[in-house]
Amino acid sequence: MLPLPFSVLLLSYAASIGAALYPDNPPTPPPTSTVAAPSAASPYAWLPAGAYDARRSVASRFAPPRGCVRVAVAPGSFGQWLRGLPLLPAGTPVKLYNGQLKDPQDVHAAVVNIDVGTQDLQQCADALIRLRGEYLFAQNPAQVHFHLTSGHDIRFADWYGGKGFRVSGNDVLPASRPVEAPTHATFRRYLDQIFTYAGTLSLDRELKPVPLAAVQPGDVLIRGGSPGHAVLVLDVAEQAGSSRRYVLLAQSYMPAQQIHVLRNAWGDPALGAWFAVDPSQARFSTPEWTFRREELKRF
Question: Is the separation of the CB atoms in 161 and 22 below 8 Å?
Fold first, then answer.
């Protein structure tokens, strides 16, 4: 999350948010834990045509802990999409937006094969916005919309249709912009403007709280603030015959850096990239941030 201009932070938070940030989930078909490969029209639109390799996906790289199985997710859901995320080769270091290496380099187990941009924009909450936005873009570009910290709802369909915005003092004002086709390149330009004026504060307000014991792929550990932080639940596994759950986590951080899968290096290194979920504990620790139990939320 890029630190917001002071004028934007002064915007009234009393404005009505209106409709929920994302459309309601569709009716859930019979659950399945199978990780389906993307169709010929790959849902990972930032990759060059034909570049997707399911053997380098999150699900292929990270088997569940011994004695566990992945929880069921609906076909076509955000959770299934996250399981198919492409990864860079094992051992790839995490780089910042400017090409420098992240410090430290011992908190990640893998790097997601997705660009970080060339500006210091795609930070923690922005990385979650990026992945959720990419999923929605692959479903239907008209579904994509995100709120600014001010509460203004900026729809991608309006943005590429010529209805942009500008910040003036304490106001977010409508502004005309060129009409464009809803291509992925257009979508990336839209996201960069969203990243500039959204962050953990806006995302935290939009998400719905869920109990830690009910964690699902696609959920978010988030603390809105300045500073704040957000971590995405990429996958969830459950111990056979019990309710014990384990999660795979991904993040970006400050400065903007490649999205990476976190490594459980201090809590229980034997789990590799998986983290045990204990709802009885008041805190949930990740390598670079400790969240409160109540800070799990859902799109």
Answer: no
